Amino acid sequence: MKFKFLFAAMLSGIMLTVNAKENLNIQVKSPDLAGKQIFLGQYYMSKLYTKDSIMLDKNGKGTFVSKEKYPEGLYVMYFSNSRYFDVLLSDKQQFSVKIDTTDIPKNIVFEGAEETKAFHDYSQFLLQKQLNGKALNERKKKSTDSSEIKSIEAELDLLNIEVKTRQNDLMSQFKGGMLELFLKELIVPEFKETELPVGSKNPDSIKAMNRYMFYKQHYFDNVNFSDDRTYRTPYIGNTVQMYLDKVLVQSYDSIIPSAINLIERSKGSEKAFQSMCSFMLDYSLKSKIMGMDSLMVTIGRKYYLSGDAKWADSTLLSNLAKEIKKIDKSLVGMKAKNIALCDTLGQYHPIYDMGGSQLTILFFYEPSCGHCKKTSPLIRDFYDKYKNDPRIKVIAVYMLTDQEEWMKFVKEIKMENMTNVWDPYRTSYYWQWYDTSSTPMIYVLDKDYKIFAKKIDVETLEMIAKYELK
Length: 470
Hints:
Elements: H1 2-21, E1 24-29, E2 37-44, E3 47-55, E4 61-66, E5 73-80, E6 83-89, E7 94-99, E8 108-111, H2 114-142, H3 146-173, H4 178-185, H5 203-218, H6 236-247, H7 252-265, H8 270-286, H9 293-304, H10 314-327, E9 340-343, E10 348-350, H11 351-354, E11 359-365, H12 370-386, E12 392-398, H13 403-413, E13 419-422, H14 430-433, E14 441-445, E15 451-454, H15 458-468
Parallel strand pairs: 1-7, 11-12, 12-13
Antiparallel strand pairs: 1-4, 2-3, 2-5, 5-6, 7-8, 9-10, 9-13, 11-14, 14-15
């Protein structure tokens, strides 16, 4: 017996040594899933990526093991596209989870990592409170009794207090932990109306502006953008996207400073900085908002081409530099270059001399371009509508050097009465001052010859003219 005891003690010591080398050890038990594959997915900027997988044995047991800890954050354990549950990985990553597939995520039991278990328990608590709240709201909608409605509203207030109390308790209990960061960052500061001075003009507009300015400045007060863990959650990417698309005024001069501010706030960590930089660069490239290419140029120069983006390889930097060079002289808000172009009689005229008193339209085209062939008649019709209005002028710029092709196209489309120009000897270098990398390209210049809009279709041009010339 003594020998057996001594052998068991030695074996136990060996097991402890092995486990000590395993910084991550997640034991999974689920008899229902015997012989099935279990996946561990990781959130990054609100998207889910597979991190690891294991195959459960015939008894439904298996273990996720790693010598190094996984990055703290929100993960998902799943075994099919529709069967999954969230798992919080804190600094302590040695625990067990029992899965009863008859009721997920309710019948999930965590043991061994207090913070991970607390997150799961809170998720179940919150789900129940949401169901209670939904039932109360349904009763409120159906009720016509004022006293009953008042009673229901009191119950709803109590539910909110219970949730906030639970959140505060958990944030206090796990100070500095992943759970505190997760819960805190979900809290959006609440705007409180203030009384306006008596006699204020347009009080509704003032209130709306006050609300906008508050959320513009304080929406992310509880978010730590310099913490790597922030980016490994299911909400952060979607929340930033919503802030840019819904909270802010949808104009480049409103969005760009706010986007740069968020990047600056991420600078406390190289990984966080990379995450936010990459997100905003991608956003600038995909945005449909006029003038957002200015954000790409700003990010490219300020962070990538300056050498701050240590992660960027030579190919990315080279492509970015080329893209910036292509567009950086023709951004919305910049004054357009007053290049001189040649008319059909061989006379050169600066753009400013050919423009309208309020709007000048530059239409760059190539006859062989399919889209140009479709757009040119629409531009001609637009010109016909405003040809007698000195406030707006349309300048059609043929981009090639074949005069015969040019004249044939002008006649074919019936554009003879328009201001038709070209650059036969390539003396204007228009392609350096105006991005014409894709055709057709339409620019709208304002009364000061600043670029008001660009890369638009004729329908948008019609809307601009109608609004600006009213």
